Amino acid sequence: MNFPIYLDNNSTTPMDPRVLDVMLPFFNDKFGNAASRNHSFGWSAEEAVDYAREQVARLIGSTSKEVIFTSGATEANNLAIKGVYEMYGSRGNHMITVTTEHKAVLDACKKVEKMGGEVTYLSPNEDGLINLSDLEAAITDKTILITVMYGNNEIGVVQDIKSIAAIAKKNGILFHTDATQAVGKIPVDVMEDGIDLMSFTAHKMYGPKGVGALYVRRKNPRVKVTSQMDGGGHERGMRSGTLNVPGIVGFGKACELCQEEMADEAIRLSAMRDRLEKELLTIEEAYVNGNAEHRLPHVANISFKFVEGEGLMMGTKDIAVSSGSACTSASLEPSYVLKSLGLDDELAHSSLRFGLGRFSTDEEVDFAIDHVKQAVEKLREMSPLWEMFKEGIDLKTIEWAEH
Amino acid sequence: MAYSEKVIDHYQNPRNIGTLNKESKDVGTGLVGAPECGDVMRLQIEVDDSTGVIKDAKFKTFGCGSAIASSSLATEWLKGKSVNDAMKIDNMEIVEELALPPVKIHCSVLAEDAIKMAINDYRVKQGLEPIEDDKKHY
Predict the structure, then answer these.
(1) CB pairs under 8 A between A and B
(2) Cβ–Cβ below 8 Å for B35 and A395
(3) ipTM of the predicted structure?
């Protein structure tokens, strides 16, 4: 085993060596600009991009023309949300999203509000899923876009995308989903799911960083977004800028590999995740955050009450995980996603997120289980809250000397 | 952000974890921070009545590595000090000793406040006035 063990695959994934192999020639021999129409350097780059575009399209069930390459999911989210607002402003100015979305969606929505739009932020249930009735109730005759993420980055909860898309369609509203964590991990099909716009990125599925895509539907309905980057009119005029050919080639290969291996990988990873979770839940006062049934196969978010997440991560330095505690940030605010579920700040501060991946092994998971158990035990021994809990003191009755 | 070696040392080998009898007249307890802020520090001192010297100090902390290290260091410094000298411990001394980065300064502030709260708890038990400190944060 190599230490530290990487269990943070929701933040990024290592590149699959097979992806790197196909990318390498495009850094040197085949360095051409895909937009150069006059010589073979350009033609071979264009051909490689076309091929990759097909690989990407095949994974999500779209046509290749509907794939707009971007620098990543953040840019794709921005392009979708602001691009729809600008393109369809004459039809209405209202959008609907959820408080547990990624910042790239929430902050793009904030921008829309600044530009004069109105946004409704739905609160999810305790388990992270939204109520479809809340969504329907939020729709007005001014609503032009519903944007709800496919699988959540912190807790892995998978929304009922098909039903949400159906509600949007019934009301003549466009539906965008940030599927960054879902594409390549679970079957995502824009036709079957009824998605109009979808953001995703290569580096969450064993591809390179710096390349992603926005799926933009071309039929029933034909969707257009106003470009947020002006220039040479690349990507059907929706995203100017010289194409990142090696990145796109790698993205394509990553998609192809996911398509071939996703089904088996999901079975393997969910079994591994379930084992990790079951073992860690044998720790007293440990809780799973988010819906355990409608969830990405590789994610587990667990709160260990009475220990603080950052302190816990320091005690588990042989594994790389992420915490909902934000002791390092100036605000001291714990994860807004966990807080949106109605979790006490205390539980939000006590959470760890485990993200398994293609290269995770059983041996690594065994190590992580022991490592976390020991760290929780050690930290509880030094936790005044744990001592109070054990003495039967209700922490809510204490008047804390807050800072 | 990387932790300093001293923070790591205190985190891995915390000094003086534990609990003193908070009902005892010779023991002063300071409990600062709040669970929802992600930091709770409890610091206790046991004072020798005749000399006014702190003969034992214990802590328990819920928080990040810097919070744990700040309180562990504080107990080390408190032992053997007179109550009056202990009152003079400044959070910036903790910041310097542990090389805490700016975002972790609040951990040292908590430790200083916990020390002062413990001393005042002791003083009140002894029938003395608590010492008002304009620098206090809690």
Answers:
(1) 105
(2) yes
(3) 0.92
